[in-house]
Design goal:
313 residues, alpha/beta, Arc Repressor Mutant, subunit A, D-Maltodextrin-Binding Protein, domain 2, 5-stranded mixed beta sheet, 4-stranded antiparallel beta sheet, 11 helices
Amino acid sequence: MRLDLDGLEALDAVVRHGGFAHAAARLHKVQSAISYQVRKLELQLGVQVLDRSGYRVQLTAAGEAILGEGRRLLAEARHVEALAQQLAEGWEARLLVIVDGILPTEPTLAAFKALADERIPTCFQVKVEFLRGVQFCFERDDADLMLVKDYEPQPTLQTEDLPEIESILCVAPAHALAKLKSVRLEDLRHHVELSVQDSSGRRDDPHGFGGERVFHLSGFIAKKQALQMGLGFGWMPAYLVADELRDGSLKELPYAGGSRYRFTPRLVHRGDRPLGRAGRRLVELLQQSVWLPPPTVRRRRKTAQERDRSSAR
């Protein structure tokens, strides 16, 4: 390349500080060295950047254009130097995190906001996946961390427990299953089960019911909409359906095998590849985050009038 960053730096200093002598003092160099670097830059580029004919040197028209672009290059070069220094101090260049879509988003987003506010130099990438797709993407993409509901333990993986989350088996009040006093497994298998997409392709949800008709939605928001429309039944994290269960737009299924279960999500990282400063800071922030407590959603008690109508039938 016919370009010398030292020459650009010398030219910038001459213009900013009003001459070769002041530029030399600013850059802690002798005046002849500054003059040589600017002249070398002119020879490299094949244009004259300074007009030396007057009492004070001035930029030529070509010099103005070159210095304008040169200052941008100098700023980028300083950024690269600062980044290299930060990386040498233990900050990762990239950190890829896979997050299970069943988990509340607020704690994770709050942690990333804190990292952004701290101006950490690491480039963070976040992917949201579901079911076995979380670990599938963690391994396929060689990710650094995953926040996951279920995973297959491996000797090289290290884990931290996160607060418990409750799941509730839900259905719309107008759905045929909602009319039953007690729902058996056979009853569920006659209806559409709603699940979420799994990028691993395995489609073997450990909490599935084994029916022939399973609709896989893009996420839990779409799944909740499908539930409210009466498309089918399915598990939902309690924090996402607490309001709907209270106002009656969704109903908890009286499934004989149990309509609720709790799970402990985990923060998983690789023991054979220790986290750098950014990864350790992220883990620290996630552990300090205020996770949404799983709300207690009680079944609505029937009023006296509703009990009378039921007994009359």
